[in-house]
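Researcher: Here's the sequence for the chain we discussed earlier.
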Amino acid sequence: MAFWLTINRAMNQTLKAHPPRPWKVSAPLAAARKQQRYGGGLIFEHESPWGKIEIIDQGSKRELHLGTPVVQTAIHSTAPWQPAMEYAGCLALAALFPPRPQKSLLLGLGGGSLLTTLIYALPDCRFEAVELHPQLAPLAERFFGLPQGPGLTHFTQEAQKFTQKAEAGSYDLIYLDLFGPQGATPHLRDFSFLKNLYELLTPQGFISLNLWNKPKKAFQQSLGYLQQLFGSVALVSMQETQNLVAFAAKQGQWPQLSHLVQAAEQLDQNLQIGLSEKLERLSLENPCLFSP
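Model: Thanks. This is the structure I predict for it:
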């Protein structure tokens, strides 16, 4: 129970409008709209060797696009720590699972909305973010309110190469959100890549993955590999998209549901990030996951 009390104390000291110390962040920058695109106002555009980057204001939301109408990242402009995309809020639920997480790895930064949520939820955790596109990290800070601080290290590298060289057993949490303009990364169907993730986790570690349920064969292959490797795997389907979020426990041990409910309610009270609703869905869709 000590872990949950620690979470409560930390969150009681967190102001809704400011990141926890020592993190620093400026509000996402306003910008004059140039033209209409994807139904919103284009505020930034850049062609790079990795493709086109577009940042769009859609009313109170800000979106990252990579040359297509598909939204890669979305935030609430006045509250960037609150997930604006359903799957990102669900991925963040994993922050509740390991006791006192000290170090987390994010594979795929995008506009940084998931990482921003996690920094507010776990202010004492250290984060490493891996992103192939070198311009996305500074743009995430400039336009999407990604906090800056000594607890965050960025790596501009391909995810598979990074995981091959990272130290085994060094992460309590791993978040995987590797999507591009054409969809999910083939790494999700690569057994050796998923095995690397398994080995990078601490014994009590968890992984949280963004998956697509189509094509069905590719999804079933990814799920099968996860079930071979991890002690326990749970899925939550998204109501708005074809995404599914997978949670995998390295040793198959999950916290008591009552403890998770308490921690989720406390975080939601302070940050309004919707973890309680996501936790309820996890429990309902995986009825055998938690012991009575």
